[in-house]
Amino acid sequence: MEKLDIPIRYVRGIGPKRAEFLKRLGIETLEDALYYLPKRYEDRRSFKKISELTTNGPETISGQVIDSGIRITPRQKKKIFELVVHDGTGVITGKWFNQPFMQKVFKVGQKTILTGTVMKSRYSYGWEIENPEYEIIEDEERDIIHTGRIVPIYGATEGLSPRYLRSIMKRIIDHYSPNVSEFLPENIVTGYNFPPLSEAIRESHFPDHTDIEALNQGKGMARERLIFDELFLLELGLSLRKGKESIEKGIPFKADSILLKRLRENIPFKLTNAQEKVFEEIRSDMSSPHPMNRLLQGDVGSGKTVVALQAMLIAIENGYQAVIMAPTEILAEQHYLNIHRTIEIFGLKVSLLTKSLKDKDRKDILKKIADGDIHLVVGTHALIQEGVIFKALGLAIIDEQHRFGVIQRTNLRKKGINPHILVMTATPIPRTLALTLYGDLDISIIDELPPERRPVETILFKESMRSKVYLKLEEEIKKGRQAYVVYPLIEESEKVYLKAAVEMSERLKKNFPHRRIALIHGRIKAREREKIMDSFKNGDVDILVSTTVIEVGLDIANATVMVIEHAERFGLAQLHQLRGRVGRGSSQSYCLLMTPDYFSEEADRRLQALVRTNDGFRIAEEDLSIRGPGELFGTKQSGLPDLKIANLIRDSSVLEIARKEAFFLSKEDQFLKSHPALKDTLERKWKGRLGFVLN
Ligand code: ADP
Ligand code: MG
Asked: Which residues lie across from 483 on neighbouring strands?
């Protein structure tokens, strides 16, 4: 059996120099090469008779070399190698420009196959074919590579021509694929009628008898098997990790809390059915003897915070501490104020922990957290720093989890001993995909907004219509409402946009001399920022000009207008989040998207999607189809193995099957004791990212 992880340099016929080139294609090991599949295939099987050529276009011709030579163009002195081929019905001239060495390739009398675009000669009678792919047939029996068959077209790179790459791949596949060991359990291979692995690999590179259309659409049993393999290994890793977690000991809480009842009496609304349902799921997890690992999905404004707060009260009443981590200081401050206000009356101690704390205050808070004098901690990334030690952390919540990486989740978890974990996000995605990307989590979905919410009306405005936007602003402010005006802020160009935001607030002041306008951005000191947010919350500011620091989480119901400047520069998910800052009360809200008069079509597609719907699920789907999951979720930081062949969106139906099989198998054979080849492959694919050892 072949060792698949040998460096490509040591693969027969490669050597250090070629290895360097292959590396650029991401091929570092033998296995990488075997799974470096063609981008597409070309059918070069059927030979056209030269006498039957009628129109210009791609063709494959087979014949005998009857003449060759170099011609120099009269004016530009270009060297053209010409090859005259006869197939018994006619003659065609192959032309290679500036490649005089081609002269050495062919000999008169040889049999050859040429593939390329044929065209009627412009200067003389007959047909020509420019820079064709060629294959010299020395011995009819020998394997042909470049033409005369279904030919794989690989993504090439500088220094590696497609032709050369194809030769290398042919050698590798011929030599190594027959000995690749099967790792899928036999019942799966037979159950789904998959070809054996070695055959699937060979067929995917150099297909024999297959439908070219299907091949180019990524179909056919060979390709399907490889897609399944990849998704199966992904899901298997996830399910084993999950199984491991569910046998871990957690902290079973008593969940019929008195605090909970009191909280319910104190909140000014009735929970929606969806909120009740997900809270029951959380409550049941928290009373089980294993740690909860749950993702709470709910569109912006669906009321995730109050669900989180209830969970935190359960932990606290059981004598443990709870923590909630938010991605921005502004959001952490808001959570802190709300939570503090809501549960102060229960005599519970709440603290805010962010980077902006003074050293002395920080020390003081850290000590109280360590002593258990603080029950509930709200904070930012500052929470996962080293000096933060809890006396007894029972529940860790991450808000807006899409802004964090897996590492940060893990680090927060480490602040306790197998604490319950709840992560929350407003970026909804299809269920199986969510189950995969957040693989080791269970999922709860709030699929209902609180009553009396009206969809935000979203309108596009070009720069030349700016005065209309100002009219709308004025109209709402007159009614006593408030507005956000947001500027994009991209880190690299922070200064530029900051300047733009400052200028915008000046401009607004000129246009709204009678209105109170404030500016907020990431560079403003925490204390100052809190003041500004407070006055906005209290209605002392009419228009809040801001960078994207207000993107997530903020909840101010009286704000009914969101103006987004340069909306074309934002991604869809981000726009939806921003828009979610309004429409949080019962009055009609507006999202006014400003763009320059001219901008890209792709951006227009995003903005149209936003105008069309308020539904986060539909927006996420649109976003997925525009950007693909890799970019949307940064699979790099998701801690999952790279997918080389499968695509989580395109192959979603295979994903479901793979998931089912993987979870079934992992229940049967938790340590893969009876599947050694599978275990090997799994460990290689996950490269230590499984987070545990299988033995
Ligand atoms: P998100 O899910 O976006 O985090 P929040 O938790 O910030 O949403 O809630 C949005 C607003 O809706 C808050 O002002 C909250 O008090 C309010 N809210 C939450 N649940 C309900 C409900 N069942 N009925 C009415 N208002 C609610
Ligand atoms: Mg929120």
From this structure: 543, 561
The dihedral sign for the CA sequence 261, 322, 407, 337: positive
* Site of tokens 């901008």: 599
Q: Please give the Cα distance from 395 to 293 (Å, whole number).
A: 10
Q: Atom 26, ligand 1: which residue's CA is nearest? A: 450
Total-model pTM: 0.69
Alpha carbon distances (Å) from 447 to 118, 276, 650: 59, 11, 25
Helix axes 162-176, 197-205, angle to 10 degrees: 160
Neighbours of 192 (CB within 10 A): 15
Cα gap 646→652, rounded to integer Å: 9
Q: What integer pLDDT is reported at residue 213 of this predicted model?
A: 84
Burial class (CB in 10 A: 0-12, 13-18, 19+), 28: middle
**Six token digits for residue 500:** 């733009």
Chain center to CA of 129: 43
Ligand 1 lined by 500 (C-beta under 6 Å): no
Pocket test for ligand 1, best of 296, 302, 552, 578 (most atoms within 8 A of CB): 302
Rounded-to-integer distance, Cα 105 and Cα 103, Å: 5
| Cβ pair 37, 205 in contact under 8 A | yes
Rounded distance between C-alpha atoms, residue 404 and residue 324, angstroms: 13
Token code pair at residue 457:
């009306």
Q: How far apart are CA 193 and CA 196, in angstroms?
A: 9
Q: Rounded distance, CA 8 to CA 19, Å?
A: 6
Joined together, the tokens standing for residue 454 give 């009206």
**pLDDT at residue number 493:** 58
User: And the tokens for 377?
Assistant: 């901690």
Any ligand 1 atom below 6 A from CB of 576: no
* 116-129: b (≥16 Cβ within 10 Å) or e: bebeeeeeeeebbb
> Which atom of ligand 1 lies nearest, measured to the CA of 272?
23
Tell me if residue 289 falls in helix, strand or coil: coil
Cβ 453 under 6 angstroms from ligand 1: no
Nearest alpha carbon to residue 545 among 558, 532, 530: 532
Q: Give the C-alpha distances (Å, rounded to integers) separating 628 from 70, 635, 642.
A: 49, 11, 14
Residue 694 confidence (pLDDT): 57
Cα of 269 vs centre of ligand 1, distance in Å, is: 9
Strand partners, 459: 592
What is the predicted pLDDT for the residue at 143? 62
Residue type, 690: L
- For residue 537 and ligand 1, the question of a CB distance below 6 A is answered with no
CA dist., res. 523 & res. 360, Å (int) = 22
Which atom of ligand 1 lies nearest, measured to the CA of 557?
14
pLDDT at 1: 59
Number of residues in the chain? 695
Asked if 659 and 235 touch (Cβ cutoff 8 Å), the reply is: yes
Report the distance separating Cα 131 and Cα 115, nearest Å.
9
> Side chain identity at 166, as an amino acid letter?
R
Distance 610 CA to ligand 2 centre (A): 20
Helix (H, G, I), strand (E, B) or coil at 455: coil
Residues of the chain falling short of pLDDT 50: 141, 491-492, 634-637
Name residue, tokens 């979870």. 663
> What would the two tokens of residue 186 be?
């036999």
Nearest-atom number in ligand 1 for the CA of 270 is 23
Phi (first) and psi of residue 223, to 5 degrees: -65, -40
